[in-house]
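Section 3.1: Structural characterization of target chains.
Under the original work plan, the team committed to producing a structural model for every single-chain target entering the pipeline before any wet-lab resources were allocated. The record below documents one such target. The sequence was received from the expression subgroup and is listed exactly as submitted; it comprises 58 residues.
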Amino acid sequence: MVLAFSLAWNASDVREQAQRVTGNAMAKGLRVKREVLRARHCWEESEFTAVAILFGND
């Protein structure tokens, strides 16, 4: 259970960072780089893992 909450917390941090970088890039008229997309993918995977652990479906 603690692991699931830790993963969810980390996923939230990664998501916020990805949104901040994306917002900055869009504000400057720049293209969103691969690193941002990779960060979003990591966030989605972390959230999925956290939910799976919470419900016992690892």
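The mean pLDDT is 70.
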